[in-house]
Amino acid sequence: MTERSVSNTVGGAEAFRHGLGGRKKARIDSLAEAGALSEEQGVSLWRSAWRRLRRDPVFLIGLAITTVFVIIAIIAPWITPHDPAARLLITQVTPATPIPEPQPGFPLGGDNAGRDLLSRLIAGSRQTLIVGVMATLGGLLGGMILGTIAGGLGGAADTAVMRVVDVMLSIPSLLMAFSIAALFARPSQWTVILAIAIIQIPIFARLLRGSMMAQRHSDHVLAARALGVKRPAIVFRHMLPNSIGPVIVQGTLVLAVSIIDAAALSFLGLGNPNDAIPEWGQMLGKAQVFFNTYPHIAVYPALCIIVVALGFTLMGESLREALDPKSRR
Amino acid sequence: MLKFIIRRVLQAVLALFVLSILLFAWLRSLPGGVVSALLGERGTPETAAQLRAQLGLDDPIYVQYWRFLSRAVQGDFGISNGVYRGEPALDVFTQRFPATLELSLFAISLALILAIPLGYVAARRRGGPLDTGSVIFSLVGVAVPVFFLAYVLKYIFAVKLGWLPPSGRQTVGINATHITNMYVLDGLITREWDAAWDAFKHLILPTIALASIPFAIIFRITRAAVIDVMDEDYVRTARAKGLHAKTIRGRHVMRNALIPVVTIVGLQIGALLAGAVLTEKVFAFQGIGQALAIGFELRDYPVLQVLIMMAALIYIIVNLLVDIAYAVIDPRVRTK
Question: I want to staple A301 with a disulfide (CB 3.0 to 4.6 A). Which of A206, A219, A280, B33 is the partner?
Answer without folding.
Answer: A280
